[in-house]
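Summary for the steering committee. One of the milestones for this cycle was to obtain a three-dimensional model of the protein with adenosine-3',5'-cyclic-monophosphate bound, which we needed before selecting residues for the alanine scan. The sequence and ligand used are listed below.
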Amino acid sequence: AVERTLSIIKPDATRRNLTGKINAVFEDAGLRIVAQKRIRLTDAQAGAFYAVHKDRPFYGSLVSSMTTDPVVVQVLEGENAVLKHREVMGATNPAQAAEGTVRAQFAESIEANSVHGSDSAENAAIEIAFFFSQIEIVG
Ligand code: CMP
């Protein structure tokens, strides 16, 4: 089925001017960028977005790492978009990411791992609504 997923190009990647190279990986995989904006997250926004991880030891560091530089938030659309996006991102830890994936090519560390993607269709709907209104998504 055609799905949408929420993608974030993280500060480590925008800092190194990798937005276009990462978008090319997504587009080559058949994902269509149907909404996109470059924003700077506040601490409160990053903390709220990652609230599901608030009891994890890396939460504070993760939240502050998301505010050091701009992020590019985007909605990707395509057949099986959630899974397809996760496949092309590669494993969370770049040391375990398959060759050719975004994280294998570009990530600096498990925290500075260049991209975020929703992990299910249900969470995709929640995460898309966190950043975008319906009129900003043009399929
Ligand atoms: P992301 O897919 O955005 O989801 C949560 C983020 O927490 C993850 O990518 C990493 O950037 C960050 N993180 C830092 N340390 C860890 C860890 N040990 N395990 C999982 N995620 C981590």
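Key point for the committee: Residues 53, 58, 62, 92, 110-111, 113, 116 surround adenosine-3',5'-cyclic-monophosphate (CB under 6 Å).
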